[in-house]
């Protein structure tokens, strides 16, 4: 039997090569991680947001932008109808065979009148409701419809006209399919 030497094998050239390769890969990985970290920090420095107080220049730019928006709104005020009323653009909310609803954005008033006109060829249906406000817009509804209102099935054109002491306007027409 051979006597044991202190339990270690003598390193060979192949083993040194493996150790050198592992250490080299670790060093390369560390260098690459450092370079990626540096690149990310450089990008984040360029695109970072300054959360500090506004500078005088930034405040002046903000005020100029705000003044520009206000003057644009004042010059683009709503057009007036021939009778001096503001022209508004009512919009449809619900359009179906049983009920039609519309509202007038940008107008908050009670007391106006909403007129629904449904047409198909020479056939015409007219309904009128009083406009009401919910504190946000002026509402034109409900226009309640029933099969007794329609004389025939088909595609009917619907428009709503809003009229008050201060404003007037008509929706774009929309099509309503009626089945009797």
Condensed summary:
It contains 2 helices and 10 strands. It is of the alpha+beta class and 180 residues long. Strands 1, 4, 5, 8, 9 and 10 form a 6-stranded mixed sheet that branches. A 4-stranded antiparallel sheet has the order 2-3-7-6, with no helix packed on it.
What does this structure look like?
By secondary structure, the chain is of the alpha+beta class. Helix content is 31%, strand content 32%. It is built from two helices and ten strands; from the N terminus they run ααββββββββββ. The chain has helices at residues 13-47, 56-75; strands at 86-87, 91-95, 99-104, 113-120, 123-130, 132-133, 138-144, 154-163, 167-170, 174-178. Strands 1, 4, 5, 8, 9 and 10 form a six-stranded mixed beta sheet that branches. The longest helix is centred in the first third of the chain and has 35 residues, at 13-47. The model has no long low-confidence stretch (mean pLDDT 82).
Secondary-structure content class: alpha+beta
Number of strands: 10
Total helical elements: 2
Outline the low-pLDDT stretches: none
Biggest sheet, in brief? 6 strands, mixed
N- and C-termini, Cα separation: 110 Å
Mean pLDDT: 82
3D shape? elongated
Element-level helix/strand string: HHEEEEEEEEEE
* Chain oligomer state: single chain
Write the layout of secondary structure elements.
Layout: H1 13-47, H2 56-75, E1 86-87, E2 91-95, E3 99-104, E4 113-120, E5 123-130, E6 132-133, E7 138-144, E8 154-163, E9 167-170, E10 174-178
Parallel strand pairs: 1-9
Antiparallel strand pairs: 2-3, 3-7, 4-5, 4-8, 6-7, 8-9, 8-10
